[in-house]
Fold WD repeat domain phosphoinositide-interacting protein 2.
Amino acid sequence: MGKSATNLFTVYEDVIIVEHLYSSALVLIVSRQSPRKLRVHHFEKGKEMGTYSYSNNILAVKLNLSRVIVCLEESIHVHNIRTMKEVYTIKDMARNPQGLIALSSADTAYIAYPASSTSGQVDIFDTVNLCVAQSIAAHDAQLAALSLNTGGDLLATASSKGTVIRVFSLPSGDRLFEFRRGMARCATIHSLAFSQDSSYLCSSSNTQTVHVFKLPSISPEKSCATEYVRLNFLSSDDASNSYTSWVDYFSRTATHYLPSQMSDILQRETSFSTARLPFLSSFSAVALTKQVFLSKQKSRIREYFAAELVSSITFINLIGFFH
């Protein structure tokens, strides 16, 4: 990868993982031929800066301004990004065959990863102070996806059932929101992503529907009401109108019997929208910025919603996207 779309060159064949640090020239690569090796490449200089080997296949790589995180199935390796010295290893962790892990880009440098292979327990590890900051029982079923926002103070999770997406406050672990899919069908959620300003959360799955949620700002005193969470139904085609009507009725009724702070959370309306991708894919990943919504799939991508097509990423402008 060069500085522009007109300056491209091959670094490695059959790359299975590639991570780039913001606008820097640092690129981390794992190839299919050497799945246990992490290669650090400086694409402006066009040379490899170093190679680091691990005991098993590398499943995920994350990096921010201070840390490089390498995730294996049963261990996580924390490196200092300036020296690439390994400063800590999380060992004897629950099996994580999907390599589920998230890293915040803030000074907290939290990582989130599954603490159980059978339930939805999530551990939050502070990679600066090298200690567990929180453990959260996010779901009953095992995790399918998780994401940290840029500031490291919000965690989004989804279980293998695919019916519920939850948002937690960090480091407290308080549950802030619960976005529930309809009961008509389950889905395998592939990815979750916050916008840069944490105003929106989006999700993709094994269906063609991409969901976007608006996250209301919560004052500190309201975030303490952890046992009362807002239910947000994604779309009418995911749940029957009668089912949604009953839930709306009970939600409105419950607010009359709750303290004002808690009823405010239940009653707060949020904007949300869904987009339908033109085809199914074995895997999809999403990301949000303030300006554009992105959806990337492993298979071919074509223009959608008059989006600008760049390489294998579809950009969908948010203007007029919400309803």
Remarks:
- The helical segments are 241-254, 260-267.
